[in-house]
Amino acid sequence: MSSLFARVFRQARITFEQTAIGDAKFAGHLNTLRHLLGQLTLADLNLDSSLVATETFQQPTKAPCTFVDVYENDRFAISVFVLRENYTMPLHDHPRMHGLLRVISGAVQIRSYTELARRDSVTTTSSMAAADGVLGSGGSAFRQRHVLVAAEPEKIISSSIGADSCALLTPDERNYHEITAIGGPAAFFDILSPPYNTNQPQHISFYRKVPVPRHLAELELGRPGEEKPLAPQPDDDRPRYVLESIPNPENY
């Protein structure tokens, strides 16, 4: 690993281990980390270039997504994902997390969504299949979630150097996303805090997007006796969607 990676690692520890999120210094530390990440390259990680080669993904048994575990403790996790060209990492969430994504090879398209409201219920996998037109019996219980979200502008991020080449998500903004490799295989460096599967309920969930008219989306999650749904904001013209949680995809 390079000296730049060592600086990134030290700054990640300062940001997520030594500073509380509510601390006045947190935003500054996070911005410094984002600036350092914007300079990171594939060479800084000493990864084999064959990981991102088109030929690697032409092998019949090769999965469309490669995961490289770099580091993890109970405060943050560092990893690298390599995606086959045109492969889309399934739409998923980052509950109560901060995340930074730096493309180190190729380019990706990121579609992000910000949560506005949610509702949980219990269903079965068989009832979900029936809703999709697949007949069957039985099925296991599945906690299903419907989330009202606002779509953020799509971003295309490449491995060019600069702070703008590092995407950021927070517990309150852009905390649902799907990522597609474009123009060839792509690799990105990822920092998440806290990691998934800590002592807190930090589990990944996957979703499918259900478009709805905006005037109905504002009412979609309302129920008698529950907190009133969000009132429409006249200055917020972001498209609304409802995300419906699904079982973990088989190809991921």
From TrEMBL:
UniProt keywords, alphabetically: Iron, Metal-binding, Oxidoreductase
Renumbered residue ranges of the record's region Disordered: 222-252
Biased composition (Basic and acidic residues): 222-241
A GO CC term assigned to this protein in UniProt: mitochondrion
Pfam families: PCO_ADO (PF07847)
InterPro entries membership: PCO/ADO (IPR012864), RmlC-like_jellyroll (IPR014710), RmlC_Cupin_sf (IPR011051)
GO molecular function terms attached to this record: metal ion binding; oxidoreductase activity, acting on single donors with incorporation of molecular oxygen, incorporation of two atoms of oxygen
Designated name of the protein: 2-aminoethanethiol dioxygenase
